[in-house]
């Protein structure tokens, strides 16, 4: 049992360091406005939320790129230039060359080409000639997704254009320089609905794809992901760089609350260490103390354990312990799942567990 408890303590300690640090690396700069043109105010909702990435689907119509999800929604007053390029240019001029007034955050414009790849790219390049403040600005990254050139043709396009990568594609070093990020269909990879936690094998699949992208020093994005808080938490756990959303205010609120929801204790309180001097003695018991916690399960113990620099009296007992049931993932979201059983034993007897 001692070995098990040491393993639990080490696992909890590792989780508290790695995952807490992972969360604190995230902000609205990791937020991606999926199909942004479908917002009630395209561009501006995401921009004023300080999102790091905005997506627009485009169709080539009369030598212009019109923005829409399907051809039925096409309208001449909704172009890439009118909804996005002009507004980005305006903000760059307003902020003295910076996309955001703070001057440190960058913006990625993900352009999803729906058809006519070569002609659409030619039209985009021709339009961008009017916006050197965009194409020459290191704070703006334009990434092409959807229909895009073959890797061997990346070199034929201006250096300010990047391309969405495919994790199943082997790129040369030069081609990889033109990959802006890697994207993959979430629903093709796993069937997780976003509720609870993914199955272990699904979590492993997600992490492996993220690791492939990071091994090539590129950010990772999944499209088609569940779009609510529990899903965002799991995606952050997996190290996904861009969190997809159609719900800009909700993801903004969630991302901005991350620093407020973490507490770092600077003082560790000494915990009681039993002496076990009376272990093995056969004598009348003087006092029996019965502690009945109300609604306390491992998440509460874990919170105290973490805040007290991984020291908690409950994890130092020789003769009681806890039953493990995939708790390391579940304890972050559910108050009563994972571990809520305590065990005890008498000398030379098996453990008896009460749940």
From TrEMBL:
GO molecular function: phosphoric diester hydrolase activity
GO biological process, one term: lipid metabolic process
InterPro entries: AIM6_PI-PLC-like_dom (IPR039559), PLC-like_Pdiesterase_TIM-brl (IPR017946)
Record key words, sorted: Signal
Signal peptide (from-to): 1-20
Coiled coil: none
Protein name: Alkaline phosphatase
């Amino acid at each position: 049992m001692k070995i098990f408890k040491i393993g639990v303590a080490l696992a909890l300690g590792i989780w508290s360091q790695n995952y807490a640090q992972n969360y604190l690396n995230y902000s609205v700069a990791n937020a991606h406005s999926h199909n942004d043109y479908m917002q009630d105010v395209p561009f501006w909702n995401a921009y004023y939320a300080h999102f790091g990435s905005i997506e627009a689907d485009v169709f080539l119509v009369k030598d212009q790129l019109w923005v829409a999800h399907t051809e039925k929604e096409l309208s001449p007053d909704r172009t890439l230039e009118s909804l996005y390029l002009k507004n980005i240019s305006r903000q760059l001029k307003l902020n003295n060359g910076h996309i955001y007034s703070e001057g440190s955050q960058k913006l990625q414009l993900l352009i999803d080409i729906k058809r006519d790849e070569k002609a659409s790219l030619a039209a985009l390049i021709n339009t961008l000639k009017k916006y050197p403040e965009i194409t020459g600005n290191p704070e703006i990254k334009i990434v092409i997704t959807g229909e895009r050139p073959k890797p061997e043709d990346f070199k034929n396009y201006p250096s300010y254009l990047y391309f969405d990568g495919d994790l199943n594609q082997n790129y040369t070093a030069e081609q990889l320089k033109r990959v802006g990020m890697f994207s993959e269909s979430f629903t093709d990879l796993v069937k997780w609905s976003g509720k609870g936690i993914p199955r272990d094998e699904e979590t492993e699949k997600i992490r492996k794809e993220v690791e492939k992208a990071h091994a090539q020093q590129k950010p990772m994005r999944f499209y088609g992901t569940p779009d609510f808080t529990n899903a965002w938490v799991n995606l952050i756990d997996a190290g996904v760089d861009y969190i997809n959303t159609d719900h800009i205010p909700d993801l903004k609120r969630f991302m901005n609350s991350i620093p407020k929801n973490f507490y770092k204790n600077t003082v560790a309180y000494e915990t009681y260490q039993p002496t076990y001097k009376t272990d093995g003695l056969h004598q009348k018991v003087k006092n029996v103390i019965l502690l009945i916690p109300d609604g306390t399960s491992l998440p509460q113990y874990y919170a105290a354990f973490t805040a007290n620099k991984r020291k908690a009296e409950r994890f130092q007992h020789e003769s009681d312990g806890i039953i493990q049931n995939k708790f390391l993932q579940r304890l972050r979201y559910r108050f009563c799942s994972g571990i809520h059983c305590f065990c005890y034993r008498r000398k030379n007897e098996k453990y008896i567990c009460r749940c």
